[in-house]
Design goal:
The chain is α+β, with helices and mostly antiparallel strands. The chain folds into two domains: 150 residues, no CATH class; 102 residues, Immunoglobulins (Immunoglobulin-like), CATH 2.60.40. The strands form two sheets. A four-stranded antiparallel beta sheet has the order 4-3-6-7, with no helix packed on it. A three-stranded antiparallel beta sheet has the order 1-2-5. A hairpin with a 2-residue loop joins β3 and β4. α3 packs across α4. It is elongated. The protein starts with 5 loop residues before the first helix and ends with a helix.
């Protein structure tokens, strides 16, 4: 019998294009909106709806379920991606959502092939007893995910310490411009080291900065001090003296670094 699979084919094409565009780093806003938004707001929920409800929904119900389940999938995916090495990036989002969409589309295709007769949507809104239960569980997961995301965002601290080491040449003397900015909201005591390979060039054993205070200095450097070794600037907090808190590497092959030492 005749079965319509054009919707699944269209879903697959849109998903693959969206993934390729994200991985290629396309920056055109119109293109990203045209292909990215459907992948976030509709496509995974549409294929998941077909899997859960066997295409027995009317058009309005199918649209509602598709958007709702897509939002659920996106929220849960964000929480999962946030704890992976790939993090929340356009490429990781696209691959993750694309895999979910194509996987559920494949399941929906297999189920359609095994359904007798036409797969056209029925006029009524008839569901089996377990399907509302699944939807309720999905809604509960969405609420929990939103609460976790909100609490996680609230727990993120804006306090930080900034460290910089910039090659420079002032008054004919080659040097490193070193700086620390304390944005921890409290006074902090630091220890700063500048090393070339395993050799210590300079150390400041105790630098106390008040909240919002910056410290900066120029450290003269000679090529004989560094040789072919990389320069490693390490910052420690005195309340955790054995743990490197911030560090900056300047490789000897770095053209800017070489130029500063000439």
């Amino acid at each position: 019998m005749y079965r319509k699979f054009y919707d699944l084919a269209l879903v697959a094409v849109l998903t693959i294009v969206a993934v390729v565009l994200a991985l290629a780093g396309v920056k055109n806003v119109l293109i990203l909106i045209s292909f990215g938004l459907p992948l976030v707001l509709f496509l995974p929920g549409y294929t998941l709806t077909l899997v859960l409800f066997e295409a027995k929904l009317g058009k309005a119900e199918k649209l509602l379920f598709s958007v709702g389940l897509s939002l659920l999938v996106t929220i849960v995916s964000g929480l999962l991606l946030n704890v992976t090495p790939w993090g929340l990036q356009a490429g990781s989002w696209a691959v993750w959502l694309g895999a979910i969409t194509l996987g559920t589309a494949g399941i929906a295709l297999v189920r359609r092939l095994n359904l007798p007769g036409s797969t056209a949507p029925q006029a009524g809104f008839k569901v089996k007893w377990f399907q509302p239960v699944l939807l309720g569980i999905a809604g509960l997961i969405a609420v929990v995910a939103l609460l976790v995301a909100r609490n996680g965002a609230a727990a993120v601290s804006d306090n930080f310490t900034q460290l910089w080491a910039i090659p420079s040449a002032q008054t004919g003397q080659n040097s490193l411009r070193l700086g620390i900015s304390n944005q921890e909201a409290v006074a902090v005591k630091y220890r700063l080291q500048v090393n070339a390979g395993t050799s210590l060039i300079k150390e400041w054993p105790s630098l106390e900065l008040a909240a919002g205070q910056e410290w900066e200095t120029n450290l003269p450097l000679l090529a004989t001090q560094t040789g072919n070794a990389s320069v490693n600037v390490r910052l420690y907090r005195l309340d955790a003296p054995d743990k490197v808190y911030r560090q900056v590497f300047l490789a000897p092959k770095n053209s800017v670094f070489q130029e500063a030492l000439r």
